[in-house]
């Protein structure tokens, strides 16, 4: 269907372009020989055609770009559910940037922990579904309303996933151990007093306890158990979560990491990390090289930020 739309737009553009050129040439030639004195509105025709062409082209490019991720207008909402925000968009941008790799990765099971409105899992499905129609998608959240809202968002986009209301992945761990090929997590990461973590309602969407790490630190070992040998893990963090420490912790479990997206907003400095199992990481002298690892991470973060400011 998408191919048909592209073909239709291509034909329309070609037609409009050639009509505009033909009219422009005809008007110029006729005026040159003094044969006709085209009225003002007729003389504006080529310009109008070109304008239509440009607008149509822009619309096509925009819709092509947006149809690859969830449409924000079709994302369901509820006052007790986290609305897609800068962090959600940065995570989807990271997946979008990695789309070709993700397709080549050929995942069989993809999962999101803490799905909220369903914006991220729906976008992941839309990114992969054309090339990989048989992937099984799972999304979890502790918030029952979020599970319902995610189902509504999925339905509004004509896609489906298994949505489970559970703490991290507790009721799925046995079934999914070693099977998840792609895991995405945008956890509650805001540094808050510890008692706010896991509170009822919307606060549980962002309250991350000391250094914003309470939920993150509980998620990491679960992800390690669920990921398949070739599994990839995308995690949203803030600089105040000490992402280099997170990478170091994961390195001790045998994972390599890199920054996929770095974004600074007025309120926060977001870093989207990607992890994958790496044989080389298992052999390194973990204790003595910690300090150099943190330095290396800081260097790569600075160069990442520099590139963005340029
Ligand atoms: C920052 S929001 C992200 C929502 C959505 N993924 C997005 O990016 O827009 C964090 C989500 O994690 C959920 N959450 C918090 N603690 C959780 C836990 N222990 N297990 C599963 N989900 C949790 C919250 O209810 C919330 O929906």
UniProtKB/TrEMBL annotation:
PROSITE patterns: N6_MTASE (PS00092). Keywords: Membrane, Methyltransferase, Nucleus, S-adenosyl-L-methionine, Transferase, Transmembrane, Transmembrane helix. One of its GO terms (biological process) is methylation. Its main location: nucleus. The keyword Nucleus applies. GO terms for molecular function: nucleic acid binding; protein methyltransferase activity; S-adenosylmethionine-dependent methyltransferase activity. The keyword Protease does not apply. It holds the Pfam family MTS. It is found in: Nucleus. One of its GO terms (cellular component) is nucleus. Residues 105-196 form the Methyltransferase small domain. The chain crosses the membrane at residues 6-34. Belongs to the eukaryotic/archaeal PrmC-related family. This is Methyltransferase small domain-containing protein.
């Amino acid at each position: 269907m998408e191919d048909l739309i592209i073909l239709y737009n291509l034909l329309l553009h070609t037609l409009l372009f050639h009509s505009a050129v033909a009219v422009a040439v005809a008007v110029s030639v006729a005026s040159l020989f003094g044969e006709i004195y085209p009225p003002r509105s007729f003389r504006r025709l080529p310009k109008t055609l070109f304008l239509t062409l440009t607008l149509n082209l822009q619309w096509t490019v925009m819709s092509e770009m947006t149809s690859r991720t969830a449409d924000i207008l079709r994302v369901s909402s509820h006052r007790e559910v986290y609305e897609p925000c800068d962090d959600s968009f940065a995570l989807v941008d990271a997946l979008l940037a990695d789309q070709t790799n993700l397709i080549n990765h050929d995942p069989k099971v993809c999962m999101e922990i803490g799905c909220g409105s369903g914006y991220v899992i729906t976008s992941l499905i839309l990114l992969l579904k054309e090339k990989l129609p048989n992937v099984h998608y799972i999304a979890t959240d502790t918030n029952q309303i979020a599970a319902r809202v995610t189902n509504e968002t999925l339905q509004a986009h004509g896609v489906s996933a298994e949505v489970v209301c559970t703490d991290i992945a507790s009721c799925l761990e046995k079934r999914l151990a070693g099977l998840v090929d792609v895991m995405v997590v945008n956890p509650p990461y805001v540094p808050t007093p510890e008692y706010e973590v896991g509170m009822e309602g919307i606060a549980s969407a962002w309250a991350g306890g000391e250094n914003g790490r309470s939920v993150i630190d509980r998620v990491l070992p679960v992800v390690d158990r669920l990921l398949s040998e070739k599994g990839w893990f995308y995690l949203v963090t803030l600089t105040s979560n000490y992402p280099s420490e997170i990478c170091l912790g994961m390195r001790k479990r045998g994972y390599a990491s890199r920054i996929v997206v770095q974004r600074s907003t007025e309120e926060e400095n977001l870093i989207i990390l990607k992890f994958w199992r790496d044989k080389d990481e298992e052999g390194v002298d973990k204790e003595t090289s910690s300090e150099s690892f943190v330095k290396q991470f800081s260097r790569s973060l600075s160069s990442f930020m520099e590139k963005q400011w340029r």
